[in-house]
Amino acid sequence: MAAWLALLVAMGLGACKSSGAKPADDSSAQLDTSADPAEQAANDDKQCAAGDLEACRRLGTEYLEGKGVSQDLRRSTALFQQACNGAIMSACNALANAYAEGTGIDKNPQRAAEIYQHACDGGIKPACRNLGLMLRDGRGVPADLTRAELLLDKACKGSVPLACTSAGDLDAMLAAKGAPNRTKQAIAHYKHGCETGDPTACRQLGIVYLDGKAMPKSPTTAEVWLQRSCLADEPVGCRLLGTMLVQGAGVPRDLERGKQLLVRACDAHDAEACKELEALQPPGDAGIPDDGP
């Protein structure tokens, strides 16, 4: 039983190494989704030319996404730069994303970090998360876990999607290195994220209770949090819970329900879940096996 729990944790952590790593982008805020895209872009173009910098930011997003106009990444980045120069802080976050990813401009992580900090200081919480991730992972800039912790916590408290998971992951990383009380902080961050609608945080919280490195293992508590993540269609959570039920790993064995959850995860393109379903097939059966003992 203990071996299965250890395997479950390893499988879950392996799928979550890059959890929450994609830059948060709030540049699409305030777009009128009910308007004709071409008309919206044409109107934003006119307003931008007349000096409306918020319209320039919207137009930058439209060129970035190819909505109402042909996609033009260089034009998009130039518009974000123009709006950012005019103190449109959400445009600064989008500009920093461009520098971080090399989208429409030469990749420059150091410049991205500087602009993220400017946007974060200007109240754009997704920029705080983006910079926190760069500093946590040493992505193009020297790692600075102290700054990363402050930035990710700030973004988490600002209800930025995935920020609480990112903050909890940093806590868990420090806990693994022996830092005191970090597991409790990870749990607090994951709980806040889960309770504010982030299913990845629910899944990570389940993994903490499966892991049991700094606290007693509790598969039954893990089941509760993994169930919450799966109900929100988080595939890794569905897969982990499905595996627990199929194997009876710390919870009563329920083969039928376990298979259903693995199918759900596989349908959501979780490759490990698909492999587990294949392994459950009787010899010579080309499909998902019928439920049985």
Describe this structure in words.
With 293 residues, the chain is mainly alpha-helical. The chain has a domain at 21-27 and 42-161: Tetratricopeptide repeat domain (Serine Threonine Protein Phosphatase 5, Tetratricopeptide repeat, Alpha Horseshoe), CATH 1.25.40.10. It is 66% helix and 0% strand. The protein contains 15 helices and no strands. It has helices at 2-14, 37-49, 53-65, 73-85, 89-101, 109-121, 125-137, 145-157, 163-176, 182-195, 199-211, 219-231, 235-247, 255-267, 271-280. Helix 8 packs antiparallel against helix 9 (163-176), helix 10 runs antiparallel to helix 11 (199-211) and helix 14 crosses helix 15. The protein is globular, with a radius of gyration of 22 Å. The two termini are 19 Å apart.
